[in-house]
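Supplementary notes for students who missed Thursday's class. We covered one full example, reproduced here. Read the sequence, then the structure, then the short commentary at the end.
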Amino acid sequence: MSIFGFYFITTILRQAGWPKRRGLFKSEAVIDTLIADITIDQMIDWSAALGACRPQLALQVIAWMFHDRDWEGENAPRILDFINDAKDRWNARVNKAPHDIVESFKLSKDFGKMIRSKDLKDNRIRTALEQLCLEGLLWGLANPDSFKTWYEAQEKTQRDQLPIYKKAGIAVDSIPTLSEFLKESEEMLRGYESEVDPLPTIPPRLLADARALGREINS
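Structure (token representation):
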């Protein structure tokens, strides 16, 4: 069963033409680790966008991540506890991109220039990607205004630089507005539902935790 972080990474890499074959008989599928690291950053920003601006979808994703847990039992997942534990670490990186605030890892550091495609499927990496995705969702849920401020500032900076890129002859894709970015984020999630599994309903306890953060969620 695919998981959200792994699904995002492999979907974006596939769209970019990875993995590629190498070797004398081109039998080994590999992925450039720098490209993979950039894609992991994109995944964290994507999950933060869902948490900040599409909280109902974010909660459904979290519900699916813990679908095997009893949400009404004593050991039910408590997102408020996670958020409270992470606050000091998050606040130490205030005014940065979500992928800089959420403590990530670099495949390029551990694997060099290339990683075998089959290594990316290792359960330890898949689990690590899921944890990053979860933390991005929770940071977004807890910090919607910070996400919007960051995105809008980033969009303005990039738009201001477009004439410079154009003058230098550098082709740059159009920069999505926040609403366009959110639409693309939703489409990625709908792709997951279509290819893997529909999202579940939100457990009452999870809904209550989100509302305790001040988020308005339609039940």
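Commentary. Residues 4-144+178-212 form one domain. The chain is about 65% helix and 5% strand. If anything here is unclear, bring it to office hours.
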